[in-house]
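Quick one:
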Amino acid sequence: MLPEEDARVGALTLKSYDAYGRIEGPYREHLADPRRRLARCTDLLVAEVDSEVVGTVTFVLPGDGEWEGRRIPAGDASFRMLAVDPRAEGLGVGRALVAACIERARGHGARRIVITTMAWMDRAQRMYARLGFQRRPDLDVRFPSGTGYVLTYDLVPDAGSAFPAAGEVPTEPPWYEDVWSLDRT
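Output:
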């Protein structure tokens, strides 16, 4: 990502999220600041169509500042803040960004990708399901903006043997701060 793309990537991220729901509070400011994320992730990717930025995603590995803080990871790679300009939806931008994250995860020797998507992100959930992601309701968490669904994608056939098996699904997902160790410095 080039420095001159910062404002566009931040605005695009907010526009993408706001098309389907709304994130408020300090996390909204975080979404709007790709330069801060860039310093805390393995890769921050952008997608372009006709030289215009139309999508972005933050690829992370455990230990990155942008790793979501799961104490016992269900995977050893992740991506966050996938955003596609609503005007570019249906062009394969989201699928291409996910494919790039899968490729990077494999390149780092990861066995599984774990992500969180908000319950109100129906379109994203349909795309992830078509790509082979599986929901892990035993790992779901609650955020100020709603419930976060946890999804996994196995990169190798024996990925299941390397991570905790699915557990009991709680009646209500726990509050994210109660189950994740967060370091947002």
